[in-house]
Design goal:
Chain lengths: 226, 248, 69
């Protein structure tokens, strides 16, 4: 009796989303963290609007990285604790599909709300008028990369007791290219320059990690569940 | 064709083989380093632009090259460990990561000490510097992950996955940083203008490079042996070895 | 020889601090690494030795218990 791949994918997606919707804190807390971190910067640097305009893309993106990092642990932790992760890995369905479903669920729960709320923070930081489209597009392409690459880190540390700090050490260096290209796209947009190049590269990173990261997550999960 | 390689997959054979090589590596590296650094410090000419500060070059460039080479070697070992499940490859990852991190740190600090008199600043967010810094983070990540696991074999596998992910990311990081830098600052960062190297600078450099490479080989040999022993501590041959050492 | 005198050599054309900082730091770090690596094998050996001794003790204790009964 073999279930089809798509039904397995959607079953897991639905399961993860249902669980997340029952624990709304898990969705709201990273979002609140995102907002608070962003609003700390004007307080720390001073409310001069020109400075804020200059640092806005970087601040929003760094805050998005950190918020994603906070929410990452949930990706596999509970499943690992109650043993359902091992059951998933034992199922006849390829790990690739299961992992991809879980990552998509994670992105829908954390990445998407970030994207929705980002323009609001752009207003707070006095982001340049022409940059909003670029901000949204980079977040749309970039946050899935954060979830995909982050999943590798979580999969490696899920079996450890003190994985939290380690996770950030492993994952943050991998996030650097996305950060660089995203902020440079937003900067270019504020200067009315074309930013297709940066977007294309973020898209390339996205598709690259979409195809490769689930394999790495799969083998990492096999190590962690032993 | 590869049959001659097979016996070395046996930890015991590899352990003794590495032990035989270590004195040779030590001797070669000491000779080359004394010769190379002597030439570099006292006999190579001063640069017409940079003066005597160019002597840092003989440390900085070999260290930077080795820091990247070691990471590549570690990633190849990681691939071997994951694909062929070779335990020795896991041991060599554990042995290589601290060495690579050390050389990355040397490359960074000597770079800073060279940059201060030349560029007027200890640190620039230049493409090469930034990617080297990130390389250090990747090394530290591998070491930290390695230490986080109680079980040595699990640690090896986890570190392998991370090393491979890192090596895929490394060129991306390098080009992203390069592009990011040029986009913001144009060519204000003056890359070191290296005069086409003359022989009396090139020879000390090559000697130093090989000297450091053999030093890496020597330190690697020792760490590799220790890792093999730690991973095979339940084996009879290790017990025999320990008991034999106790008698001495 | 690129230098006329020993003090010239140590002065490094005014770049003494930077040059000797680089060489000093590199030497220090490499020596620490080398010593650390050298000690590693010995540490592993002593650990295994201790474990073997402990196992031996447990074995003896088990034998004695058996004989006692």
């Amino acid at each position: 009796m073999q279930t089809s791949y798509s039904s397995a994918f959607f079953t897991i997606l639905k399961r993860d989303l249902t669980i997340a919707l029952r624990h709304r804190d898990d969705i709201i807390n990273p979002l609140l963290f995102f907002i608070i971190v962003v609003s700390l910067f004007p307080l720390g640097i001073g409310p001069v609007s020109n400075t804020l305009m200059k640092i806005a893309p970087g601040v929003i993106w760094v805050a998005a990285l950190l918020a994603t990092l906070l929410s990452l642990e949930r990706l596999f932790k509970n499943d690992h604790a109650d043993g359902s992760l091992e059951q998933l890995l034992l199922s006849p369905c390829p790990t690739f599909i299961l992992v991809l479903a879980k990552i998509l669920a994670h992105w829908l729960i954390t990445g998407l709300p970030l994207i929705i709320i980002a323009p609001l923070l752009g207003v707070l930081l006095n982001l340049h008028q022409d940059s909003y489209t670029a901000l949204m597009l980079t977040l749309l392409l970039g946050t899935p990369v954060l979830s995909l690459l982050g999943a590798i880190g979580v999969a490696l540390t899920v079996g450890l007791k003190k994985g939290g700090m380690l996770l950030s050490l492993l994952v943050l260096p991998l996030y650097i290219p996305v950060l660089i290209f995203a902020t440079s796209a937003i900067d270019a947009a504020s200067m009315n320059l074309p930013y297709n190049g940066q977007l294309a590269i973020i898209a390339a990173i996205f598709f690259g990690s979409l195809t490769l990261a689930p394999f790495a997550v799969g083998s990492a999960l096999k190590v962690s569940t032993n | 064709m590869w049959k001659w390689l097979h016996p070395y997959a046996n930890p015991e054979v590899s352990y003794h083989f590495t032990g035989k090589l270590i004195p040779w590596f030590t001797a070669i590296s000491v000779i080359l380093l004394v010769l190379g650094l002597g030439l570099a410090l006292a006999f190579s000419p001063a640069d017409y632009q940079q003066g005597e500060s160019v002597r840092i070059f003989y440390l900085h460039v070999p260290a930077a090259m080795l820091s990247m080479g070691i990471y590549l070697g570690m990633a190849i070992a990681a691939l071997t460990a994951l694909v062929w499940q070779l335990k020795l490859a896991e041991a060599s990852i554990a042995a290589l990561a601290p060495i690579g991190a050390t050389f990355t740190a040397i490359a960074l600090l000597t770079g800073a000490a060279w940059g201060k008199p030349m560029w007027g600043t200890w640190w620039i967010w230049d493409a090469r510097l930034t990617s080297e810094l990130i390389l250090l983070f990747l090394y530290l990540g591998v070491i930290a992950l390695q230490n986080a696991f109680e079980d040595k074999s699990l640690a090896g596998k986890a570190a392998s996955v991370l090393a491979i992910v890192g090596v895929v990311n490394l060129p991306i990081i390098h080009y992203s940083v390069e592009w990011w830098n040029t986009l913001h600052q144009g060519s204000t960062v003056s890359k070191l203008e290296r005069p086409s190297m003359s022989a009396d600078m090139f020879i000390p450099f090559v000697v130093c490079l090989f000297g450091f490479a053999f030093l890496v080989a020597r330190i690697f040999g020792e760490r590799f042996r220790a890792e093999i022993i730690a991973r095979n501590s339940m084996r009879p041959w290790v017990k025999a070895l320990v008991l034999a050492q106790e008698k001495n | 020889m690129a230098f006329d005198s020993l003090s010239d050599f140590f002065n490094m054309g005014g770049y003494a601090f930077y040059v000797w900082l680089s060489y000093g730091f590199s030497a220090l770090v490499l020596i620490i690494l080398a010593i650390n690596s050298h000690r590693m094998e010995k540490q592993v050996f002593t650990q295994i030795k201790q474990r073997l001794k402990r196992e031996e003790k447990l074995k003896q204790a088990a034998l004695r218990r058996k004989e006692g009964k």
